[in-house]
Amino acid sequence: MNHEEATYRLKMKGVTATSNRILVLKELAKAQFPMSLSALESKMPNMDKSSIFRVLSLFLEHDVVHSFEDGRGILNYELCADSGTCHHTDGHIHFYCESCQRSFCLEDIQIPHFALPDGFIPTSTSFVIKGECPECGKKRR
Q1: Measured between alpha carbons, how far is 12 from 15 in angstroms, rounded to an integer?
Q2: Most exposed among 26, 47, 51, 82, judged by the fewest C-beta atoms under 10 Å?
């Protein structure tokens, strides 16, 4: 993703393109898998953690990214579709690799619907499977 593509994508989401926002967006696009705040911080040593966090918070508000807890209590961030509302609430499963510490969205595997007792109103669902990703599995063989 180049500078112009990043600027356009942010504009389509209603976000003013600043240098920090463009840098975070480009880093997430380059990663091609969900990243935690700490992982982003290590990839972007010239930007402090609080600045990255502020950008991610703004991106969450404007459907630039969605977040999910990876089973270790750590939020991971992943880019949403180029335009429109992010439908991450559709409820798919995530996978956390215990070897490489990467998280993956398994969008083709939906979380089943659960019939909750009366009075319970869900606002989000999270389902994380932990194990070893195919790439790490190949390294062990």
Answers
A1: 8
A2: 82
